[in-house]
């Protein structure tokens, strides 16, 4: 069964974060979505000396169509570059993988 819900509550509502877009290919100036900066260890559950953060921004897929690798987003006064773009679930959401500049 396909998930067929209106996701704007999450990407435009009280759960969302507003970003400023810098892109040569997109006409967007702002984009609203769910911003995550998750802790990440190189070895998953096991203790490790190698750790970091995974920055990602989940947006409605129809709004992210023109965004490309290398485009920049300013979120919470910090600048990030898009280094990955992955559709989620049934394709209504896209996860933008970010690198902090």
Describe the structure.
5% of the residues lie in helices and 50% in strands. The protein is mostly beta strands and 101 residues long. It has a single domain, classed as Thrombin, subunit H, CATH 2.40.10. A six-stranded antiparallel β-barrel has the order 1-2-3-6-5-4. The model has no long low-confidence stretch (mean pLDDT 84).
Short description:
This protein is mainly beta and 101 residues long.
Q: What's the helix-strand series?
A: HEEEEEE
Instruction: Please name the CATH architecture.
Output: Beta Barrel
Multimeric state: single chain
Count of all domains: 1
Distance between the termini: 40 Å
Number of helices: 1
Q: What's the alpha carbon Rg, rounded to whole Å?
A: 14 Å
Q: Features of this protein?
A:
mainly beta, 6 strands, Thrombin, subunit H, globular, 6-stranded antiparallel beta barrel, 101 residues
């Amino acid at each position: 069964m396909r998930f067929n819900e209106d996701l704007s509550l999450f990407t435009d509502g009280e759960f969302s974060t507003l970003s400023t877009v810098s892109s040569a290919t997109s006409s967007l100036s702002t984009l609203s979505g769910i911003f995550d900066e998750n802790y990440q260890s190189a070895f998953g559950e096991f203790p490790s000396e190698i750790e970091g953060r995974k920055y990602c921004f989940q947006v409605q897929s129809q709004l992210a169509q023109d965004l490309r690798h290398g485009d920049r987003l300013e979120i919470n006064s910090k600048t990030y570059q898009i280094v990955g773009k992955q559709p989620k679930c049934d394709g209504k959401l896209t996860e933008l993988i970010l690198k902090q500049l």
